[in-house]
Amino acid sequence: MTSAAGPDTGISAASIGVLRWLVAAAFVVILNETITMTAVPRLMEHFDVGATAAQWLSTIFLLTMAVVIPITGWFLQRVSTRTAFMLAMGVFLVGTALAAIAWAFPVLLVARVIQAAGTAVMFPLLMTTLMEIVPANQRGRVMGYVTLAISVAPALGPAVSGVVLHFLDWRWIFLVVLPIAAAITIGGLRGLTNVGTIVVSSVDWLSVVLAAVGFGGLVYGLSEFANPAARSLAIVWTVVGVIGIAAFAWRQARLVRGPGPLLDLRTLRIGTFRTSLALLAIGFMGMLASMLLLQLYLQDVRDLGPLETGLLVMPGGVAMGLLGPVIGRLYDLHGARRLVRPGAVVFALAMAGFAFFGSTTPIWLVLVLHVVLMLSLSFVFTPLFTVGLGALPHELYSHGSSLLGTIQQVAGALGTAVSITVMTLRTVDLQTGGATEIEAAAGGMSWGFAAAAVTAFIGMILAFRIPARPSEPAQPAG
């Protein structure tokens, strides 16, 4: 089988250079999705805001990503690789610089919106470019390195900020990132070459509005669901989001026969892509839920500081990154099935193991189980990205990449919303029954992990429907 980029004869040096710059850029920008998690207490004190307001630093980042990513399927077909890269990194740099000098909390929120807008372009740009220039028989190996950006970066965000906050002021979370991102931007503009063909088309502004209302409303509603004071409003926004997404999908189906959709949902008619997307969503739900619950467990139940918490979860992220290229090479040799199935089984068992954590669980066991969880996700993510996108025809690469990025945000918000809601309800129930504050918190988190484990076991079932390799991409039906 040949790829869209040409015969399976290898990757040119120029293509390797393009991918290196894109992976480096994606890693830096995606790292910022979770980098403020550990800094919340420090920011609450500095700006004199409550926990609910401080959590908006993460919520608004997810919200902006969910609104912008659906538009990138159309955008990436309309501009060159260099233009997309320059715009994404330029916007990100402006947001990061503004965050570093933020003199008021609303300014910091605006800075996070600007950061997220730039970040939202990088993931689809990286994935689309990879599918364009890498031959089919080498995509697994290359996708293994891409895992560093899309999976390891958000896992390492809290660890990086924990280390920085131990020695420096919170502004250095952004000041450390700024020169690195600037250097990558300059190097990338020197080393990048344009890939693919530009397709001139007009944008359907009704689709833009429906995407913003639908995906933005859903992510906002799910993110606020765990807040008892905002529960009613969260339900309203969740319903609005679902209705908005339904209207958006209807609109895209109509536009296929006209000027072209903003996000081509014909990708969902391809079974391998659809199943891969569902299993990836479950994986991201479990990863984001476990990240948040572990932060709460280690700091609230085990009384660890931000630095200790960050260092404890760092080995899992590092191990995941180191294993990614190995998994990629194994995919090229054996296909997805032999990797995804055992990975999904271990992922489900690891999530179930977290549900048995208590206030006296040995810390070394927490460390080991977290490393096992992250390693299992390496066996899942790299093959699924490769086999899922590989099943798409060339003209749907950018739309498939955008849909993957969108689902990642929605799944992350859903996973944390369900887990935190279950945890909160169980904690209140235990406190009402006379349990101590620590016992109630530990019991609530145990149930939160159990809720995430249930979805992981569903993913384990889906894993047995994944083929070894994608079949020859079919042309999308009109």
Give your account of this protein's structure.
- α7 (139-167) runs antiparallel to α14 (363-390) and α15 packs antiparallel against α16.
- It contains 16 helices and no strands.
- It has helices at 13-31, 40-47, 51-54, 56-78, 81-100, 105-133, 139-167, 172-191, 205-224, 231-255, 271-301, 306-334, 337-354, 363-390, 397-432, 437-463.
- The protein is mostly helical and 478 residues long.
- Helices cover 77% and strands 0% of the residues.
- The longest helix is centred in the C-terminal third of the chain and has 36 residues, at 397-432.
Which spans have pLDDT < 50 for at least 5 consecutive residues?
1-9
Strand content: under 5%
Question: Helix/strand-derived class?
Answer: mainly alpha
End-to-end Cα distance = 25 Å
**What's the number of helices?**
16
Largest sheet properties? none
Task: Give a short synopsis of this structure.
The chain is an all-alpha fold and 478 residues long. Helices cover 77% and strands 0% of the residues. It is globular and about 65 Å long.
Task: Name the features.
single chain, mainly alpha, disordered N terminus
Strands, helices and their partners?
Layout: H1 13-31, H2 40-47, H3 51-54, H4 56-78, H5 81-100, H6 105-133, H7 139-167, H8 172-191, H9 205-224, H10 231-255, H11 271-301, H12 306-334, H13 337-354, H14 363-390, H15 397-432, H16 437-463
Helix pairs in contact: 1-6, 1-7, 1-8, 4-6, 4-9, 4-15, 5-6, 5-8, 6-7, 6-15, 7-12, 7-14, 9-10, 9-15, 11-14, 11-15, 11-16, 12-14, 13-14, 13-16, 15-16
